[in-house]
Design brief:
It is a single chain. By secondary structure, this protein is mainly alpha-helical. It contains 28 helices and four strands. The strands form two sheets. It has a two-stranded antiparallel ribbon. The protein has a two-stranded antiparallel sheet with strand order 3-4. Strand 3 (45-48) and strand 4 (51-54) form a beta hairpin. The chain is globular, with a radius of gyration of 31 Å. It starts with 23 loop residues before the first strand and ends with a helix.
């Protein structure tokens, strides 16, 4: 037939296929897949982006397709197929050089431990990249398969003991617990005077740091020591102990109730996202509002007030009251500045408060304050992130999220691509320890960055990790919006060969999640009809859709869609023919000019947060 193969990304098509075999386009000029092409004789055919094509062109077109879409065989960063999880092995791999050296000194403090089998096992684990029992037994011939479980348990205990001894020097909480143990030892030895002296010191430190469980142990030890003193003090000691125990128990009950409210709000957001309807808002107000407000005006200690601020911040956040959530997040962080020594004990809560402040500024589009706060947190992370591996992991995750949000606010998508590469390394390093709740927002933010930059292949690739999540109770909001953003990316990339199936699948999923809203219905209806529109009708429908969606920016709960997808900027880019980055940057520059000319009273920010 003398057909010419597809060349240069589809600029040429096979002759003899007729109109159905040629590349067609949408109303906006994007290439459209034709699947009804006539088959050519003489060569086997394969379905590609441009129709049915001879196998001789398959390799070239496959490379083009992979450049436009995700490699579905690629696994997420940090993924390891069929890797057996072994706690002691993972602990060894996470130890620093200093910790390993300290363990060796601790384990060999007795000469008889030289060459002990658990030390051989430690060295073996240190050299392996992945746990493999067969390799372990091969590298340690003196260890039998029957001995291995007991040796692993013994090694685990020895490492933890070594790390605890090393951590006491840097952790006030471990130091308090160690001192309480020393008091018990002195008491058992009958050294009551020495025990009382040490107990007085540790009590003062425990009260300063509000370690109520430790204080309960201290009060009980004080009672036991008083009983051994003069008989005239026994009754008085019992009364004092009873009163102290009652006060501490009341505080613990209050902390438990407030922390429960805080955890409930946080868990609700992690499962569902923001309130989806008026029905959700009513339920939230009926359950959380009276329970949280019951603590208004009460005298609280540091821990109680922290959980109170945290619960208020999360409650208002879910209810779309961003300004109130932001205000309580500021109080949350500023609360730690009143007692800096608590930052070390509650470092994760302190840093997550910073993350909540940054998120509030992002949603309210406070770019200048956001940038200053992100710089402040970056300085803080240099200190707090050094406490331990967990603190470093949390601080890096918050920094990456903040940097991504900064690029999304300013429309500097291309400048932010280096962040995506660093996040990939971050996920490879901590992928096994990060939960889906922590990884999914990062994947979604990176996908949004690539979408704004026009790199739809990388956008679809990152969204695929969210869409592949099987548990529908984890971040339902992200799972729904990931499918919608995926539709938009497929549309812009011209990968529409199964767009009808994708639309039906997305619609079905959102309905199943009970998250179908007017905005989602409008957008899905548009996608369903755009294939039949000509150029003039297409632009007109885009303008109509933009006019319909614009009022939702101030809707009580429909506006949450704009938190996830910048639909208006996307529509404006299609209408005007400019890139999405140009649209967002122009709006950003205009808002910055308005912010510069607008006088603001920032005294309350200085009082609360020091910015």
């Amino acid at each position: 037939m003398g057909a010419n193969n597809v060349e240069d990304g589809g600029e040429k098509v096979e002759e003899g296929l007729g109109n159905r075999g040629k590349m067609s386009t949408f109303a906006d000029g994007r290439p459209r897949l034709n699947v009804g092409a006539n088959r050519c004789r003489g060569e086997p055919m394969v379905l590609t982006l441009w129709g049915f094509t001879p196998v001789t062109a398959r390799a070239e077109q496959r490379s083009i397709f992979l450049a436009m879409g995700p490699n579905l065989t690629e696994k997420p960063a940090g993924y390891k197929k069929n890797e057996k999880r072994e706690g002691v092995f993972e602990l060894v791999k996470l130890m620093s050089k200093a910790e390993k050296r300290n363990f060796k000194l601790y384990a060999t403090r007795l000469g008889c431990n030289e060459g002990a089998k658990f030390l051989l096992l430690f060295d073996c684990f240190d050299t392996l990249e992945q746990y493999d029992e067969a390799k372990v037994l091969a590298l340690c011939p003196s260890i039998s398969k029957q001995q291995l479980p007991n040796l692993k348990a013994h090694l685990y205990k020895q490492i933890l003991t070594s790390l605890r001894m090393l951590g006491v020097q840097h952790s006030s909480l471990l130091e308090i617990r160690e001192q309480v143990d020393f008091v018990k030892i002195l008491f058992d030895k009958g050294l009551y005077v020495e025990a009382q002296k040490l107990l007085a010191k540790v009590e003062k430190r425990a009260v300063e740091l509000e370690q109520l469980p430790a204080i309960l142990d201290i009060v009980e030890l004080q009672r036991q020591l008083k009983v051994l003193c003069y008989s005239s003090e026994m009754t008085q000691a019992a009364d004092v102990t009873a009163k102290a125990t009652a006060v501490i128990s009341e505080q613990l009950a209050s902390i438990a109730a407030l922390s429960r409210l805080s955890v409930q709000c946080y868990a609700l957001h992690q499962n569902l996202g923001f309130a989806r309807s008026q029905k959700d808002l009513d339920r939230l107000n009926n359950y959380f509002k009276p329970r949280i407000e019951a603590y208004e005006g009460r005298e609280m200690n540091f821990t109680e007030r922290f959980y109170f601020y945290q619960a208020k911040a999360w409650y208002h956040y879910i209810c779309h009251k961003t300004a109130l959530s932001y205000r309580y997040a500021l109080k949350w962080v500023a609360h730690f500045n009143t007692k800096p020594e608590m930052k070390e004990l509650m470092y994760d809560s302190y840093m997550r408060g910073y993350a909540q402040v940054l998120d509030g500024m992002f949603l309210m589009n406070k770019y200048s304050a956001f940038t200053r706060t992100l710089e402040e947190f970056e300085k803080e992370s240099l200190t707090i992130g050094r406490l331990n591996d967990n603190a470093e992991m949390i601080s890096q995750g918050i920094l990456f999220t903040g940097q991504l949000n900064k690029c999304l606010m300013a429309g500097t998508y291309k400048e932010g691509l280096w962040i995506a590469k660093n996040i990939d390394s971050y996920l490879k390093r901590y992928g096994d320890r990060l939960t889906l709740h922590e990884k999914m927002p990062l994947y979604y933010k990176v996908a949004s960055l690539y979408f704004g930059d026009g790199n739809y292949a990388k956008c679809i690739e990152n969204l695929a990790y969210i869409i592949a999540v099987k548990d529908r109770n984890i971040r339902r909001d992200l799972q729904c919006y990931a499918r919608m953003l995926n539709l938009m990316a497929l549309y812009d990339a011209g990968l529409d060969f199964n767009i009808d199936y994708q639309i039906r699948s997305t619609y079905s999923f959102i309905v199943k999640m009970k998250d179908m809203t007017e905005m989602k219905a409008e957008l899905l209806s548009f996608f369903k009809s755009f294939g039949n529109l000509n150029a003039m009708d297409f632009k007109r429908e885009l303008k109509v859709l933009h006019e319909r969606l614009k009022p939702y920016e101030n809707h009580p709960y429909e506006r949450r869609t704009f938190y996830y997808i910048d639909l208006l900027s996307w529509l404006e880019s299609k209408i005007s023919g400019r890139s999405m980055g140009e649209i967002v940057r122009a709006r950003f520059e205009q808002s910055q000019r308005q912010e510069t000319n607008k006088p603001t009273n920032k005294k309350w920010l200085h009082r609360l947060f020091g910015i």
